[in-house]
Amino acid sequence: MRSAPKLNPEYVIDVNGEKKAVILSIEEYEELIEDLQDLAVLAERREEPVIPHADVVAELKRNGYLSN
Description:
Largest sheet: 2 strands, antiparallel
Shape: elongated
Number of domains: 1
Number of helices: 2
Strand order of the largest sheet: 1-2
Distance between the termini: 28 Å
Structural class: alpha+beta
Strand content: 5-15%
């Protein structure tokens, strides 16, 4: 699992010094969007049945995708 991205946000503040918006680099923004999309997929697939790793490996070997 990868760690959370290191963000370097800048803030837009109002006349009272209250934070109103965040400025991120395009790279940081795109990383956050990708992470959100990944989390959405995980949430959508949460109830799907799982297949044990050993079963996947055995099937791949049977079908010739992995060598013995």
